Amino acid sequence: MKKRLVALFAIMIPLVAVLSGCKGSGSQETITAVGSSAAQPLVELAGEEFSKNNPNEYVNVQGGGTGTGLSQIQQGAVNIGNSDLYAEQKKDIDASKLVDHRIAAVGMIPVVNKDVKVKSLTIKQLRQIFSGQVTNWKEVGGQDLPITIINRADGSGTRAAFESDVMDGTPFVRSQEQDSSGMVRQIVYNTAGSISYLAMPYLNNTVKTVNVNGIEPTIENIENNKWKIWSYEHLYTKGKPTGMTKEFLDFIMTEHVQTNVVKKMNYVPINEMKYEKDYKGNITPVSKGVK
């Protein structure tokens, strides 16, 4: 019996030592942010910057769309819900339980296939196109070419922002819908006569941007509300943030991130917006920025 006990201790002591060592060496803390694909590139890069300063802390960023971000944070399933909308704008979301952290503004930009010979559209013409009243580019100053609409899927914050600022209650015509901004861009690139819209950070030279009401989509024009199609990037928490979640949200608002990440990725730093938009769509000038 005595020999068996000695043998058992001989096995258990090293095992305990190994297990203790694994726990210590692998003690990485992780938070998860889910939702808006328009916000995803910004939150991902901010997370990478955050981990450089905090090597044992990792921000897991996933897309899924604004609807997913708001529902997941409401359920308490994630630490942060990314959204292009105010929570008040989304049905089935109790905004009173959530805390809004606005980190940037972003322009939503109409894009067309590069062969489309139209440089500018009015808000009314955009509404007529996306509602199906205008179906050929020759009706709005372009060539004789059928218009192919690529829309974002229901639940997309980018779609909701475009719908609010452009459609003014007019329903979208039935058309192809895509979940991913990257896929929208690729389809517009490959499809003659196509039109869609993208959050500004997703723009590249594979598609052609369209001015609206003669206004060019620039950061300055978004700041001054001359470019009318824009929204905020909201990071929602369920109640006041604590611990690593608070540390990360504070980090995003630092001068380093707002200047070196937000600006470089073609978002607008939140405190540089000259106008504020509330959840009802009311727009008012601000004198000291928006927080």
From TrEMBL:
Family matches, as PANTHER family: PERIPLASMIC PHOSPHATE BINDING COMPONENT OF PHOSPHATE ABC TRANSPORTER, PHOSPHATE-BINDING PROTEIN PSTS 1
Recorded GO CC terms: plasma membrane
InterPro entries (UniProt xref): PBP_domain, Phos-bd, Phosphate_ABC_transporter
Descriptive protein name: Phosphate-binding protein
Function: Part of the ABC transporter complex PstSACB involved in phosphate import. Involved in the system for phosphate transport across the cytoplasmic membrane.
Membrane topology per record: Lipid-anchor
Chief site of localization: membrane
Record has Lipoprotein as a keyword: yes
Signal peptide: 1-19
Keywords carried by this UniProt record: Cell membrane, Lipoprotein, Membrane, Palmitate, Phosphate transport, Signal, Transport
Complex formation: The complex is composed of two ATP-binding proteins (PstB), two transmembrane proteins (PstC and PstA) and a solute-binding protein (PstS).
Gene Ontology terms for molecular function: phosphate ion binding
